[in-house]
Each structure stands twice: as structure tokens, then as C-alpha cells.
Amino acid sequence: MEIDSVFFTDHSGRIASNILLDQLPSYQSLLYQRRSSGNGSKRKNSSRPRLSSSGSGKWAPGTISRQEEKQKTLMEQRPIRELPKTMNEKRQEKAQRLKKNEDLDSWRQWSQNSRRHLRRLWEDYRELRRSLQLWRGDIHQIEGRFGTGILSYFSFLRFLVMLNLVIFLLIFGFVMVPLIVVRSASGNITYNQSDGSICSNYPSSARRGLVIFHQYITDLLSGEGFLEQTYLFYGFYKAQKISFPHVTYNLALAYLLVTIAYLILSLLWIVKRSATGFKRSLVQDEDRFQSFCNKIFTGWDFCIATETAFKQKKSCLLYELRTDLEEERIKQKIQGRTRKEKLRIFSIRFLLNFFAVGFLVACFYSIYLATIFSQTAGRKNIKVNFFVDLIYEYLPSIVITVANFVTPLLFSFIVKFEDYTPAFEIRFTLMRCVFMRLTSIGVLLFSLWSQITDCGENSCECGYNYKLYSCWETRVGQEMYKLTIFDFIIIVAVTLFVEFPRKLMVNYCRCGLAKWWGQQEFSIPDNVLQIVYGQTICWIGAYYCPMLPAICIIKYFFIFYIKKVSLIHNCRPATRPFRASRSTFFFFVVLLIGLSLACVPVIISVAQIHCSQGCGPFVNYTTSWEVVPDTVSKLPDGVRNLLYALSSEAFAVTFFVLTCLAMFYVIALAGAHKRVIKQLREQLVLEGQDKRFLMQKLYQAQRASGVRSPGSKPLARSSRSSPSYHTSFNSHFTETVFLAHSSPNSSTHV
């Protein structure tokens, strides 16, 4: 008996080898690996039988019995209505379970009944939660008509609504409610009173006397006038502490901690939602052949219920296959490039990127000039007429919107000459657009802060330009408010005055221009960038405009129905497909980038720039962050020492070391999982080769014995009229991966 034979036990319990299975490619490969690892030495415990040809031990008798027992236990725990059986079989199953429960003692019966009732209660809760989901019916309708790719955009929009709702509840509960309650309860408010200095002067901007109606509209759109000193903006919360009969509420500390809380909450929620897509991207196969198989055999979307969506999905799959083939062609072309061709391509890319950077710089400088001009016009109180005044107010928003509209068109045009792969072209263009949209907000804030901190020829007695900005936080909040309102106006205007007329022109105009222009595509990445841009504004503006999350909830609520109507009546799905699994991960990555950029101006405002001395809850502090050490210094000694220890360098170094160790462990674990996945893929390939080998042996045995069954006659005739079955099989299935795994018992009968 050979040491490395494949062993199976017969009925008598003796170990027998199978010559046929010893020839399997998987076994030969494993044998070669063991001989290589052993360096020709004898193995220890060589008399121990191996359980299968692949070495997995999957079909060992003990393993089979354990798996069957585990599967039987899981089936018994499932509710009867969920079992894949007929009604008669379910009745028999119920009777068997009742009879089995009668044999148990009272404690086990009570335990099983309790588990069953808790499981039913949990299922009812999950069903109730699903039924209460926002836009559940509308999202199912969109999924049925357009598939899961477009569904992911509307699900992402629903996530932003829920996120903003939680942020607003935090701000409302810890900042607004105490001010509202104290006015009707027996409490006292400690206001930050004016000390008579020039820094504490905050004049009211409310209009007095006879006011023209359109001025109220201007105030409503700009956040000035009657809206400036309301709950909407930072300047209204001019209270440091609120004293109730038994407790004192520190409003300044609550205002700062709520800001930190909603940023951290947003980070954790986004990371949690993006974890699933990130795990899929880690285990995503890099083999192009398996990518083709996945698209052909598992790429169909079974949620589609209309013929239009069926044709669109078919064209999307065709486009994906063409794109993959084009990528393979470009990769082969890249490998065959000469040094001269590489130099030419890199030169073209350098010039085009230099042009793109120059265009971005020009856009940013235009935003800077527009902001300076708008602020100058507001300071000089220039009044021409209603529309001109409104343009002055919204000039930075207009310039940002125009730049966000022009730059994607330019980037999509120049990327065609950079000779990238189609997939990289899409990603590179999107990242350029993300950079443009999010950086434009930073340029706007930089322009405002350059005006706020510039005192000109006068000395900055208050730490900021108090003559022009008596409450600069409110001014920044007004700019964020205007950006949010203008973004919503643009979305509505594009839907009504661009997409709808375009649909009418395409349907009823027979001219060549209308046919060339075509129907508007519902581009998922562009729409996602639009709402991520709005959400970034919300994160930044919530510190200066506490009611901005509530405004964003109303905005996203209307955007959902506007986009739904536009998708159904005005637009068609994009030609370039966007799969739901990849798109969801992309959405949250872009949203995470927006959150990271939103934290920067908030941190600078809290820790660096001098607080306004005439408004807000931080009048008595130089910066907003000073409220934290001031509050800590008034705590009891034990708590104060604990907080000082947590903020010390020793704790920071220890925490950093532990974090690094945890990170190294996670990286090592991820590497081990990758290696296991690689081994499993190799095992799948070997199992596919085993199947081919057994099929070839079966065919050779049939030819040698001369036995012809009714089902094999056509095979013999076809083999005579064409190349042999063996040759045809090898030519078509050389690289095929078989996912099925037949048992050795069935193989031994071959």
C-alpha cells in the first residue's frame, strides 16, 4: 500500500485505495506540494489516512455525520411555515415536533417555547421596522422598474434624511429645548451682557418702518433681516448658563459638545454603512476571467419587472463586457508600448493635467473674487433693485454652481486624450469632480475668513474685524444657508426648465438635432456628487446655523420626489452601468471625504479664530474651545484628575501604541484571510480539473468497452463527424471553474 494513496474505508472497516482517484490533478498537485515542503524526508504519522483527494476532509464519514446532524438541528429550529415543503409535509412535521416535545421534561418545554416566542417577537419587530421605513413603497417601485443600481441612489438619499434627522434632534434637544423651556418654566438665563466695549456691539438688522414686500423675500432667501436674530443662526444663542431650581445647564458647553457629537456620530454611521461594501471590495477577484463569468452567470438583476428595464439591463451587461474587453486590449497595448510611445503619453498627460490644474485655479480665484465683491457690496449697502440685490447676495453661490457645471464637461472631454482604461477614466473623472465641488466650499470659507481676520489699517482689538462683522459666525451661517437654498433652486430649475423641455423635444420634434441630443440620462455619480456637496455644506453650516439640518431634511424630502418624477417621466437610465454593490461603497467613500473636509473649517473656527464678542454663547471666551478647560477646572478633584490623566501625553502614547498593535493585528488577520481565499480559489480550479479528468476517463471507458446507451449514441455520431469529445471539451473548458463538488463515494463507482 502506498503511503500517499487516497484512502477510503470499505464495509469491513479496512482502508482501501482507489487507483483512479490517485490520478486526479488535485491529488497530484497536493502530492507535489508535500514532497517539495518535506525536502525528500519521510513524513511523520505517514500511516494516517487522508480523507479526500483534495485534502479538505470534506467527505470523511465523521464529518458527513456531523454536518448532517447540524443541518438537521437547524431545520428543526426553523419555523414550519418557512420550510420548503408541501402543506401535508408541514402538517406531518408539526405533528412530529409536538410528539417530540411531549417526551421532554417541563423545563425543556418551557425553554423551547420561550425561544420560539422570542424569535417570533423579534421577527414581528423586524417586519414592523421594515414597514415603517421611509419611502418603502416608492423605493420598491423604483427597484422594480430600473433595477438595484438606481435604487442605491434613492436609498442613499433616505440615509441622508435619517442622518440629518438625528443631527437635528441632537441640536434641538440639547441647545434649543433648554432655551424654549426656560421661558415657560421657573428658570433664569444668564445672558452674556454687553460690557460697553466696542467689540460687544451687535446691531439688529431687522427692517423698521414701512417695508416693501419683496424685501421680505430677499430676507427669506439671504437669511438677513427678520431671520438673522432667530433660532436659525448662531448669534441668537447669547446665553451662557440656564439655571433651573436644582440644576444649572451650561449652554456654551452643550453647544460645543453637540457639534463634536454629530460629527463623530456621522463618522461612525458612515463607516458602519460602508463596511459591507469595503469587505466586498477586499475579496473581489482580480482575475478577469472570473469577472466575465460573474457578469454572464450572476450579473442579471431579478428585481426588474418591465420590458424597458429589461432592455436597459441587457445593454448594460453588454456594455460591461465590451468595457472589460477594451480594458484587456488597452492593457496589452500598454505592455507593448515602446519607450518613445510612453514618453509621448506621459507628456500629453502632464500637459492636460497642467491645463486642468490651471482651470481649477482660475475657478477658485473666481470664487474668491465673487465672495469679496459680494461682501463689499453688502457692507456698502448698495441697493439697486430687487433682482440685482439678489444677484449680489447669491454671487458666490452662482459662481460655484457655474464652476461645478462646467468642470465635469471639461474633465470628461480631456480624459479621452489621456489614454486610460475605461474604468479608470470614470473613477479619475469622478475624483476630479469631487475635488472641485468640495474644495470650492473651502475657497468660499477661506475668502470669508480672510475678510473676517483682516482689520486693515486698524489694530485688531477684538481679534477680528468687528467693524465689518460684528457677529462673523452668523455671517458664515448665512453663506451656508444661501448655498443650501440656491442648490435646491438649481435642482428644481434644471428639472423643470432643462430636463422636461428636452423630453418634449425628443418625443415630438423630428429634427436631427433632437435625435442627436437624445433623452436626458439619469447619471448616478453626478446626482450623488450633488447631494454629497449639499450634505458637506450642512455639516459645516450646522455649527453656525443650527437649524440647517432641518432645512436639509425638507430639501432632501422634496429632492426625492423631484428625482423620482424626473426619472420616470424625463430621464432614462445611464448607458454606463453602475452596480449597486460598488456604487453604495463609492457613495459612502465620497461622503466620508466630504465629512473629512467639513471637519477642517469647523475645527479651525473652534480652536483658532477669535469668537465674536457681541453674539453667541462664547462671548466670555477667546475661542470656543476654552469653555472645555474652564468647565473641567470647576469639576471635583477626582474627576478633574482623571480627565487630566486621559489628556496627558503618557496616555496618548499608550493609546497610540495599543492602536498600532490592534491595527497590525487586523492587517495580519486580513492578510491571512486573503491567503485562505486564494487557497480556496485554487482549490476550486483543481476541483474543476478533477471534473474534467473524470469526464475524460468516463468517455475513454465508454469507447474502450464499446457500450452504447441510448443517450450516448448521439455523442458517438457527433464525435465521428467532428473532433473528438475530448478535444472539444478541452478547447472550451480549459479555464472553467466548477463550483460543485461530488462525493468520493460517487466517484468510486465510475
Describe this structure in words.
- This protein has 750 residues and is mainly alpha-helical.
- Among the domains are: 147-286 and 442-632, no CATH class; 287-336; 345-419; 648-692.
- 69% of the residues lie in helices and 3% in strands.
- The chain contains 24 helices and 7 strands.
- The protein has helices spanning 19-22, 25-38, 61-77, 87-102, 106-131, 136-184, 213-222, 251-282, 288-298, 307-335, 339-379, 386-414, 422-452, 472-508, 512-517, 524-544, 548-570, 580-607, 627-633, 637-646, 649-705, 713-721, 725-732, 744-748, and strands at 7-9, 15-17, 188-191, 239-243, 248-250, 520-522, 571-573.
- The strands form 3 sheets. It has a 3-stranded antiparallel beta sheet. A two-stranded antiparallel sheet has the order 1-2.
- Strand 1 and strand 2 (15-17) form a beta hairpin.
- The longest helix is centred in the last third of the chain and has 57 residues, at 649-705.
- It is globular, with a radius of gyration of 35 Å.
- The two termini are 22 Å apart.
- The model is unreliable at 1-9, 40-61 and 711-750 (pLDDT under 50).
